[in-house]
Write a structure and sequence with these properties.
The complex is a heterodimer of chains A (136) and B (132). Chain A is mainly alpha-helical. Chain A is built from 6 helices and 2 strands; from the N terminus they run H-H-H-H-H-E-E-H. In chain B, helix 1 crosses helix 3 and helix 3 runs antiparallel to helix 4. Classes of the chains: A mainly alpha (136), B mainly alpha (132). The interface between A and B is large, with 54 and 55 residues.
Chain lengths: 136, 132
C-alpha cells in the first residue's frame, strides 16, 4: 500500500467505543474493589470535614463539643475501615509508582512497598503517642 | 541563510501541579489519617485512652502552636486534592460523562481550594498563635 493510500485509510478509520453500562463494576469482584478504592475518598473527606468543624468549635469553651455519641463512634469506625483500605491499596502501589536508585542500582519495588508500610507504622506510632501523650 | 528554529519543550506546569497534589494528598491520607480516626474518632470517644482533643484547655493550647496549625492545615487540605480527583473519576466510572467536562473540574478542584481556604481561616481564627 502506498503512503498516500495508507494515510487515507487512517483518516477513514473510526474508533469503536463500546458503551458501558453504569453497573459494569458489579460484574467482577476486581472491578468492585476498584470502585470501593475510588469511593474511600468520600468517608475520609467526611471525617476530615467533621474534624475541621470540631477545630472551629474549639474557638470558645461554649461551643466546644468533642464527639462522644455512639453515632459518632460508628461513623468514625466506618471511616476508619475505608481509610485503612485506602492506605493498603495506595501504599501497595508505591513499588509501581516510585522509581528510586541507591548507588546507581534501582531499588526493587518490593523494598519500596515495605519501606512505605514501615513508614506508615512509624508515623502511626508517633502520631498516636502525641495524641494520647498530650491527653489527660 | 538557513536558520534552524527549535521549539523548546513546553513543561505542563498545570498538569504537574495537580498530579503533585493528587499523589501527595493520597500519600499523606494513607500514612497519617487512619491513626487520627482511630485515636480521635474511636478510642478517645469510647474513653479507652486519654486524647488531646477531649479537654478544652489542653486542646486550645495545642491548637495555638504554629507547627500544629501548619500540620493540621496540610493534614486537612492536601488530601482534598486527592479526594477531588478520586470522586470526579468515580462519577465518570459510574457513567456520568459530565464529570469529565470543565465545569465538573472547576467544581471538584475548586472545592478542594475552598476547603483549603476555610481551613486556613479556621486555624488562624480559632486559637491565638502561641509559641509557649
Amino acid at each position: 500500500m502506498s503512503a498516500e493510500a495508507d494515510s487515507t485509510a487512517h483518516v477513514a478509520t473510526r474508533v469503536y467505543k463500546p458503551a458501558m453500562g453504569a453497573g459494569w463494576w458489579t460484574r467482577k469482584r476486581h472491578y468492585f474493589l476498584y470502585m470501593v478504592r475510588e469511593f474511600t475518598a468520600l468517608p475520609m473527606a467526611a471525617w476530615l470535614l467533621w474534624f475541621l468543624i470540631e477545630i472551629q468549635r474549639s474557638g470558645s469553651v461554649r461551643t466546644f463539643r468533642p464527639g462522644t455519641s455512639t453515632a459518632f463512634v460508628i461513623f468514625s469506625f466506618i471511616c476508619l475501615l475505608f481509610a485503612l483500605y485506602h492506605s493498603i491499596t495506595f501504599l501497595s502501589l508505591a513499588g509501581v509508582i516510585i522509581h528510586a536508585k541507591v548507588l546507581d542500582r534501582p531499588v526493587p519495588p518490593r523494598a519500596i512497598v515495605l519501606t512505605m508500610f514501615g513508614l506508615w507504622f512509624v508515623a502511626s506510632i508517633v502520631i498516636g503517642a502525641v495524641l494520647i501523650g498530650f491527653g489527660r | 541563510m538557513t536558520e534552524k528554529t527549535e521549539l523548546a519543550p513546553k513543561v505542563a506546569l498545570g498538569h504537574l501541579f495537580w498530579w503533585f497534589m493528587f499523589a501527595n494528598g493520597g500519600g499523606l491520607a494513607a500514612l497519617v489519617l487512619p491513626v487520627h480516626i482511630l485515636v480521635q474518632g474511636v478510642l478517645g470517644p469510647l474513653g479507652i485512652v486519654p486524647v488531646v482533643d477531649r479537654h478544652y484547655d489542653t486542646w486550645i493550647s495545642i491548637l495555638g502552636n504554629p507547627i500544629v496549625k501548619l500540620y493540621l492545615l496540610v493534614l486537612i487540605a492536601l488530601p482534598f486534592f486527592h479526594f477531588a480527583h478520586r470522586l470526579r473519576y468515580l462519577l465518570v466510572d459510574l457513567g456520568v460523562p459530565a464529570a469529565k467536562r470543565a465545569p465538573a473540574q472547576v467544581l471538584f478542584y475548586g472545592g478542594a481550594v475552598v476547603v483549603t481556604l476555610v481551613a486556613v481561616w479556621v486555624l488562624l481564627t480559632t486559637a491565638p498563635i502561641s509559641l509557649g
